[in-house]
Amino acid sequence: MSMKCSELHKILRKGNKFNFKSGKNFQNYLKQYKNFPENGIYLMTEKGEIGHVGLRIVRIGINKKNSLVKRLNKHINGSENNSIFREHIRRIFKKEESLITKDDVTEYIKNKISFYVIRDLENKREILERKIIGTISKCGLCMSSNSWKGLESATERIRESGLWNVHYVCGEYQLDKDDMDYIKKNLLK
Ligand SMILES: [Zn+2]
User: Domain residues of the chain, as ranges?
Assistant: First the structure.
């Protein structure tokens, strides 16, 4: 599992790294990339979180039908009601301060999170999402740092997996060679 995870990280690092720094202008920022897909899988890295000699993947997500840009935009410009990722982070900040603003979560994502995108032309993203989460969450080399915010989460699966994911964590699904080829072929560069 660690070898597959290592291979996955190696492949991804050849891809284009997107970020959320543009904030409110995020959708315009993505428009600069020609052929940004309507459907895909996104894999986030986080500043300070290391694995496989580089930044490790900390969250995996997909979109519903033809809405990848909208889905990603919700993570930076949405609310806690339409981005569970934001909600996980908000709950942690909320424990620290009685008053928490939407900006705290937005700043956290702006400053720390980048992501890779795998286009999905063959509708494989649901199964691939499970396999990627299963593979990474069982990897012995992807450990959270001592200062990772997710360690303060009340959600055990986040603390233990080192991922901002709950579903499919430590599941039985694992990436195979065909999946790796698909990822390689469809990674946005
Ligand atoms: Zn790993």
Answer: 2-186
Instruction: Give the whole-angstrom CA distance, residue 188 versus residue 147.
Output: 30
Which residue bears the tokens 């360690």? 151
d(CA 60, CA 132): 8
Q: What CA–CA distance (Å, rounded) separates 153 from 20?
A: 22
Instruction: Compute the distance between CA of residue 46 and CA of residue 151 in angstroms, rounded to an integer.
Output: 14
How many angstroms does the Cα of residue 50 sit away from the middle of ligand 1? 10
CA atoms of 152 and 146, how far apart (whole Å): 10
Distance 134 CA to ligand 1 centre (A): 11
Would you tell me how many other CB atoms lie within 10 Å of the CB of residue 177? 9
Per 3-state DSSP, the chain is made up of helix, strand and coil in percentages (nearest 5) of 45, 15, 40
- How far apart are alpha carbons 130 and 173 in whole angstroms? 6
Using an 8 Å Cβ cutoff, are 119 and 188 in contact? yes
Give pLDDT tens digits for 75-92.
999 988 899 999 999 999
User: Ligand 1: distance of its center to the CA of 61 in Å?
Assistant: 17
The amino acid occupying position 138 is K
Question: Residue 98 C-alpha to ligand 1 middle, in angstroms?
Answer: 35
The pTM for the full model equals 0.95
